[in-house]
């Protein structure tokens, strides 16, 4: 949520200008719309196939693709808004819906990335626990928790009053031009919760979990599975670093500037411009995410034909394959022997 250059802090004689933003937003959002709409529609169709629905983690990908598709379908409103110099003509209700969905897309995306990370962590590092949880509704519960958390952050904001306003009597802003009192009262709880629960906590989980997964994968001898898993890890890390990290760093600095914690005019101007850039770039995750869903499929097509893999798991550590022994998942639960033969398709690598 931003203010344009016309919205000046009364305590500072500092003009916040970023004339490049109008064209930059228009081009970036148009690119996301052109690439993301067919990409996410195709991905959602692919994920809803019967073969994909059988995977326990598929619910995370379906929700992520659906959120991206809904967000992208409303981008033309934002494109028109920025192309006309940040002038909103669609009314307060449309402003609340499109604005709320924009920010919800950010937090839901990184939330489902976190769920995927935890799912891969359990499958690779704690395979016995993963097999046990696979037959529960853990994935569904996590999905509901993500939606409830996002709703708890966003709904109080959009239900708390109008989000479109006229700053100078000529242009109507949407999710912008908030007064200092609004930043310190109405918007402060939203920004604090968004930074902590919408980024800091999930991003910490991603950063901690992925090195553990990568180290375990490097010990496995199935090259195809290893490549698939490492590609998934690399993709999510790149999206988080390129899209979410810069946005949330600028979000924090911008919030501190609006609370007058940062008062230097030159620094505030740079923060404002950085905020506008990262606000546009964070939307790129919506057109990049479809690549994540097809990584396993493309890897199987490009690599050797898929074959069933059997691993020895001793003290939680995968060892050499034993093609002659297979233990069904129902026999794994509660088994006490130190060596367990897990007959599986290395599901952690196939999404």
From TrEMBL:
CDD domains: 7tmA_purinoceptor-like. Its main location: membrane. It comes from the Eukaryota. Keywords: Disulfide bond, G-protein coupled receptor, Membrane, Receptor, Transducer, Transmembrane, Transmembrane helix. GO terms for molecular function: G protein-coupled receptor activity; oxysterol binding. The lineage of its organism: Eukaryota, Metazoa, Chordata, Craniata, Vertebrata. Signal peptide: none annotated. Gene3D superfamilies: Rhodopsin 7-helix transmembrane proteins (1.20.1070.10). PANTHER family: COAGULATION FACTOR II (THROMBIN) RECEPTOR-LIKE 2-RELATED (PTHR24237:SF37), G-PROTEIN COUPLED RECEPTOR (PTHR24237). It is a multi-pass membrane protein. It is found in: Membrane. The chain crosses the membrane at residues 20-47, 59-80, 100-118, 139-159, 188-213, 228-247, 277-298. GO terms for cellular component: membrane. Residues 39-293 form the G-protein coupled receptors family 1 profile domain. This is G-protein coupled receptors family 1 profile domain-containing protein. InterPro entries: GP183-like, GPCR_Rhodpsn, GPCR_Rhodpsn_7TM. It holds the Pfam family 7tm_1.
